[in-house]
Amino acid sequence: MTSIQDKSSKMSAFSLTMLAIGSIIGAGMFLGVGLTIRLSGPSIILAYAIMGILMYFNLSFLAELSLLDPEKGSFQTYAAKAFGPGVGFIIGWLYWISGILVMSSEATAAAIFSALWFPGIPLWAFIVIYTVILTGVNLSDPRGFGKLESGLAIVKVIALIGFIILGIVLVFFPLFGGAPGWHNISNTPFFVHGLSGFAGSLLLVFYAYSGTSVVGLAITESSDPEKTVPKVVLITSFLVTTFYVISVLFLILLHPWTTYNASTSPYVSALLPYKIPIVQSIMNFVILTATLSAMSASMYGTSRMLNALAQQGEAPHLFNKVTKKAVPRRALLFTNVFLVGIAFLSYVIPNKIYLLVTGASGLLSLVNVLTISLAHWRLRPKFLENRKDYKTHVIGYPVSNIIVTAIFIGVFFSAFAIPDQRASFFLGLSLIVITAGAYFFLRHKLGAKPQAPETIQNQHLAPTSENSLHNLQHLAQKTEKRISEGFRSKNKS
């Protein structure tokens, strides 16, 4: 544990829960849900509920591995322990590639949201502008960046809660005109496009739940983790699933589901018919802010992953360098260069770019999730040999691992069921094959890895994802403190 960690206070269940929720909610929900509703119709409610349950198990697998064997590398390290260094190499690089695709997805979503106010500006221009701005933010002091990210994470939660409250008012208290309500569900088949349409939506639904690795990284940050973490896993899964399912329900109740698409956020489109003054612009601004927050966070973590791979000798030594402020500038700039390519694609295929990068990123994230499930199945008995006092909180092991793995494999290949997603499927599959091929080509050169720096004083180490949690937790702790002080003051009065 670093000196920075020693000076930091431990995260409570509240702080860790807020951090986990903030890391999961992103453009996959605020924009991608429009595509999933169009693909699946009313049955999309079931899809989000099922994926929420699977997210709970995935979080449980990762959390238990982290409790039994705390590791800084989290799922990448467990992949190497369970299946060898080759899998660890592949998972690390797939995480980096997936991070680029996540940034691309968030940048594309932010461009689409911005087009609501400036329809004459092409998407590629917004992507370039936001990339330049957020690159500058990431080149600054990581501590200030962490505090900013923690604050913006709350915006995502507020956006969903605010929409749900507004949906309740519009559906059950029609102050601004009557909403279609339950007729949008009762007047159409539940599986409107059959099981193929339902299956085809699962990959995009899964993408909305991705980003759960923060829980594994934060295990060492929590107070009394064996009691705190299982509660956090349950609460996080319940809250995120509830937010998603209820908000999707109101999206269907407020507006004809056949009109949703990837050109506008459904959370804005659903409110347009009610002509509530400036509410659409407010919602669009909040969602844009949250999306840029997710893009910036992905930029931060992805550049650190490339830097970490370089420190382990699994990436060019060029990316091992960091600035005096511990920013891996070379890794950051190299990573962000790929966003220029995405800007070019948004110029060539503006109507399909979001689905392409989101689907491909979802496939790579699925590989990580499958690795977590299989690594937990294989490593748990070995870890328990040294932890006789450990009390399990994973339900149904090892049957649950088998079921979750089988479902996620089905989701992986379901991307091929929808013609519009086949390009994403082949892109994601190609990236997996290329990464695996790179390992087999370089495996003889990966034997001699550079030694880790002896002291932090001698070299400026880039903060890992784990260390960044110290920065991200500050606002969560302040929020919890203020809430507690508010309750105490009320009790005194």
Describe the model.
It is built from 21 helices and no strands. It is mainly alpha-helical and 493 residues long. It has one domain: Up-down Bundle (Amino acid/polyamine transporter I), CATH 1.20.1740. The radius of gyration is 22 Å and the shape is globular.
Brief summary:
The chain has 493 residues and is mainly α. The chain has helices at 3-7, 13-24, 27-30, 32-40, 44-68, 75-83, 85-114, 123-138, 142-172, 183-186, 194-209, 213-217, 225-254, 266-269, 279-311, 329-348, 353-384, 399-414, 422-442, 465-472, 474-492.
Key attributes of the depicted protein:
493 residues; mainly alpha; Amino acid/polyamine transporter I; 21 helices; transmembrane; AA-permease/SLC12A_dom; GABA permease
What's the SSE pattern?
A: HHHHHHHHHHHHHHHHHHHHH
| CATH class group | Mainly Alpha
State the share of residues found in helices, binned by percent: over 70%
Largest sheet: none
Per DSSP E runs of 2 or more residues, the count of β-strands stands at: 0
Pfam families: AA_permease (PF00324)
Main location: membrane
Membrane topology: Multi-pass membrane protein
Transmembrane segments: 12-33, 45-66, 78-96, 116-139, 151-177, 197-220, 232-254, 274-295, 331-349, 355-375, 395-418, 424-442
List the helices and strands and how they pair.
Elements: H1 3-7, H2 13-24, H3 27-30, H4 32-40, H5 44-68, H6 75-83, H7 85-114, H8 123-138, H9 142-172, H10 183-186, H11 194-209, H12 213-217, H13 225-254, H14 266-269, H15 279-311, H16 329-348, H17 353-384, H18 399-414, H19 422-442, H20 465-472, H21 474-492
